[in-house]
Amino acid sequence: RFGQLSSGSDMAPDWTMKEVSTGTTIMAVEYDGGVVIGADSRTTTGAYIANRVTDKLTPIHDRIFCCRSGSAADTQAIADVVTYQLGFHSIELDEAPLVQTAANLFKASCYRYREELMAGIIVAGWDKRRGGQVYTVPVGGMLVRQPVSVGGSGSTYIYGYMDSNYKPNMTKDQCLRLVSGALSLAMERDGSSGGVVRLAAISETGVDRQVILGNQLPKWSTA
Amino acid sequence: MAAVYMSANRPENAFSTVDLVPEWAQEEVSTGTTIMAVEFDGGVVIGADSRTTTGAYIANRVTDKLTPIHDRIFCCRSGSAADTQAVADIVTYQLGFHSIELDEPPLVQTAANLFKQTCYRYREELMAGIIVAGWDKRRGGQVYTVPMGGMIVRQPVSVGGSGSSYIYGFMDSNYKPGMTKEECLHFCTQALALAMERDGSSGGVARLAAITEEGLERRVVLGNQLPKFSNA
Predict the structure, then answer these.
(1) Is A121 in contact with A67 (CB distance < 8 Å)?
(2) Which region, left, alpha or beta, applies to residue B215 given φ > 0 means left and ψ of -120 to 50 means alpha?
(3) Which chain regions cross the lipid bilayer (chain A) (predicted)?
(4) Is A169 on the interface with B (CB under 8 A)?
(5) pLDDT per residue over A182-200, tens digit each?
(6) Has residue B22 got a pLDDT over 90?
(7) Which among A175, A182, A184, A165 has a CA at the least distance from the CA of A34?
(8) Which of A1, A163, A222 sits opposite B194 (nearest CB)?
(9) Domain limits of chain A?
(10) Do A182 and B172 touch (CB under 8 A)?
(11) How many CB pairs under 8 A join A and B?
């Protein structure tokens, strides 16, 4: 039946029977000189919001972050593994690691354990060789670099917005506006996304983090 | 997931009759679809893509999903092609009869409620998502959406079908109250193009229609004339 008002067993609350999931909308955009990444802040267990101020933008190295969607446990575990592997590699190399390396490490874990995992990850950052880069590693474990990438359950609602509003060679501020606009649209439509918008801009000079609270988000309707 | 795994844990047999018939012969014919409708002062603009699929096979690439119910009332059909055709035929008959009894053009709200009655009563058997739109003398241009399950609600803008998910963000950010007919047509064309680019079940040409007191104006935007949003 479609659209039931309630579901599941009446004996136990809905949230005890569902896995903790980062329902989510995540996004990353390349610009000349770096990347802008963004995410909502809602973690759900069924219909219960287990964490309304989640930080889904996870540092993997100084200038490399990942945006996590899917199972909260799986993505945390993978991110921890990759953080260790990349840190070790960087020390051996005696150099800052490449974003492409971090992305391939994610791919290696997500592909090998694809049957057991539910993880959709966007890897983004800056390195000396190729500047700002965004790599997406969706469920299943493929890897592809894209100038813009969206992920998570809320992403379906903003493909049209993204396709029509993204232009190549945008500035950092234009990217920040694009990402915060897109995330607020997705959070308005997707029940599994919400809370605040977390943004980060990563460039040669460092990482600049921002939070946009619910009441400060761009409003698109009069309702 | 479309991938097929052969492993010892699969409950199905290694050999089954489903392999003897093409995939498209096992799937119901469906209007995969993107449909939409927008109210403006003086009428409505409605739009749809033109793809009907049976599984991965495109059974009709020039489908007309904008179906007349009465002189100034149309419906946009999504879901099962058979179900929506059947329901639309029923409502066309009921509304025509009602209009003759009344000796007046029927109200859009009446047409919408007739759709709702059928879609709600047979909700368990039907797979039909319908947008009813048109013009009448009492309330001007109106859009009513009757999604699967059979609820009814009037909205200034409505999108439906599998491709609609991709354009909610575009719709929320680009729709402004008080648009003119041409602005609505442009808005619909862009929205349909974006959805058709992303949804595998939507494609072909974009069909549009503007319904006002004066009458009906139909347009077709061919694939190569649709707005392009990427360089790829």
Answers:
(1) yes
(2) left
(3) none
(4) no
(5) 999 999 999 999 999 999 9
(6) no
(7) A175
(8) A163
(9) 26-212
(10) no
(11) 62
